[in-house]
Design the sequence.
């Protein structure tokens, strides 16, 4: 939609929807309503690809890697601030307060985007939205996701799990056939024939899967009672993990600058190896009950350096390889694979 109707216009719409969904989440009367508005907040992920698209519009190619590194570092700043604050609120207040504290920041961000961001430069592509493909793709991932989510309760080999995954894959196959027959598909299959697109998308999936799984495991490790974990409370866990987010504040611009000098390919090859070795070391370390928090944090820093390099290099390669009229669509697909 950003490619078709203008980047700033769609960004403003997303910010408004996200802000309203946060407001209604904070006053949800029951769990069902809460889940509905939490799902709407997922729209906020689209801010990321639109931001990268605006960079591509406004900056020369030689400045893109550094700029993308800076954007990557802003996520680290958010994490560094949100971890201890969120942990403090969760421990001493109710969960609604978490959303109330976010509302003023969202309002400021929305007003700033409206007043400061320029409109899309040049002509905006006008093509119809592939609603059928969008519904098919969303439905397939939703069904597969639900099947995998409840598999541990009903059994991985139960008829419910197998049926859910099968139905989701069938719908996904229908989506792939549909995408070949429309002019403006949600995801163009031809894009994946380009290695400069396929490799970054695969890297997005691997780094996103690894990063979310890593932090989920770390929370368990820090909060489970000894000797299995470190026996921390929520606030202590948040304060311990917060400085780690600062690593990305340094790594993002550093890798961006390096990509401008040596190119993207060496980083895209080296960074996953660093992340994999760090993750393997963490997996082995946790089997030893004598490890300390300092041991875990040291290896975690190494792992995040690798993940940071993957983040900067993959988005840089995508932005330099995709035509501008498809940029927001492809970077949005990248975020989908990452999440």
Sequence:
């Amino acid at each position: 939609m950003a490619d078709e109707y203008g980047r700033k216009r769609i960004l403003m719409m997303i910010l408004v929807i996200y802000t309203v969904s946060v407001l209604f989440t904070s006053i949800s009367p029951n769990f069902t309503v809460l889940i509905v508005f939490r799902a709407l907040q997922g729209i906020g992920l689209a801010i990321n690809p639109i931001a990268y698209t605006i960079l591509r519009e406004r900056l020369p190619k030689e400045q893109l890697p550094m700029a993308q590194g800076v954007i990557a570092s802003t996520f680290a700043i958010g994490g560094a601030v949100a971890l201890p604050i969120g942990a403090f609120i969760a421990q001493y207040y109710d969960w609604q307060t978490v959303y109330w504290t976010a509302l003023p920041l969202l309002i400021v961000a929305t007003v700033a985007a409206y007043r400061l961001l320029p409109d899309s430069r040049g002509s905006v592509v006008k093509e119809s939205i592939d609603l059928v493909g969008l519904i098919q793709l969303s439905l397939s991932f939703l069904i597969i996701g639900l099947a995998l989510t409840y598999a541990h309760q009903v059994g991985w080999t139960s008829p419910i799990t197998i049926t859910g995954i099968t139905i989701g894959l069938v719908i996904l196959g229908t989506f792939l056939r549909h995408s070949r027959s429309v002019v403006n598909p949600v995801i163009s299959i031809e894009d994946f024939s380009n290695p400069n697109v396929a490799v970054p998308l695969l890297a997005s999936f691997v780094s996103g899967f690894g990063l979310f799984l890593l932090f989920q495991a770390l929370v368990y490790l820090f909060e489970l009672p000894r000797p299995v974990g470190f026996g921390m409370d929520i606030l202590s866990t948040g304060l311990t993990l917060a400085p780690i987010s600062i690593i990305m504040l340094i790594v993002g611009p550093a890798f961006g600058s390096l990509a401008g000098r040596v190119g993207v390919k060496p980083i895209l090859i080296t960074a996953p190896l660093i992340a994999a070795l760090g993750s393997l070391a963490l997996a082995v370390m946790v089997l030893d009950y004598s490890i300390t928090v300092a041991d875990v944090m040291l290896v975690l820093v190494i792992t995040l350096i690798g993940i940071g390099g993957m983040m900067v290099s993959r988005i840089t390669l995508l932005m330099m390889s995709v035509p501008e009229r498809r940029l927001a669509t492809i970077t949005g697909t990248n975020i989908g694979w990452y999440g």
In short: Residues 255 and 309 are 6 Å apart (CA to CA). The chain has a mean pLDDT of 81.
